[in-house]
């Protein structure tokens, strides 16, 4: 793996660590609240981020990952916490999955980063390109989690 690719995985780990740091200040109860004006909660954002990287890789490689089917139902585009059921991973389980994911991606795809596939959305042809794109997506959802968390803290302070 070259320096650019090592940097990619460092970036993935860095942004994921930022998310996990925010989540350390979130309770299980707060992770389930959908604030007024929002469609989803912190738990949904967590599952969506976990799923997103794998879905983009799957779209590119056409390699189905059957274990993601339930995640698509719970956390895919257009879903909401209304789609959760008793099998949906808990807040704590999602934190563990999110913490493990950057290293798992590196192990699973690190040797395939430059393998070329038929272009998909935005002309992406390699797993490396897909992973760079997911960093942008991660930032958007970190901001959503931060905003929801801030709103919940403010409403808790107002109630006190």
TrEMBL record:
Residues 11-143 form the DinB-like domain. InterPro entries: DinB-like, DinB/YfiT-like. It holds the Pfam family DinB_2. It comes from the Bacteria. This is DinB-like domain-containing protein.
């Amino acid at each position: 793996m070259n320096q650019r690719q090592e940097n990619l995985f460092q970036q993935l780990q860095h942004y994921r660590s930022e998310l996990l740091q925010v989540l350390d200040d979130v309770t299980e109860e707060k992770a389930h609240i959908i604030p007024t004006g929002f469609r989803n909660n912190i738990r949904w954002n967590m599952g969506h981020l976990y799923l997103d990287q794998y879905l983009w890789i799957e779209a590119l490689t056409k390699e189905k990952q059957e274990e993601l089917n339930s995640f698509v139902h719970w956390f895919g585009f257009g879903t909401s916490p209304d789609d959760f059921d008793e099998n949906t991973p808990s807040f704590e389980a999602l934190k563990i999955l999110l913490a493990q994911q950057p290293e798992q991606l590196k192990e699973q795809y690190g040797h395939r980063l430059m393998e070329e596939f038929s272009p998909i959305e935005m002309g992406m042809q390699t797993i490396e390109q897909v992973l760079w794109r997911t960093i942008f997506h991660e930032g958007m959802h970190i901001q959503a989690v931060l905003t929801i968390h801030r709103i919940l803290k403010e409403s808790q302070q107002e109630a006190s």
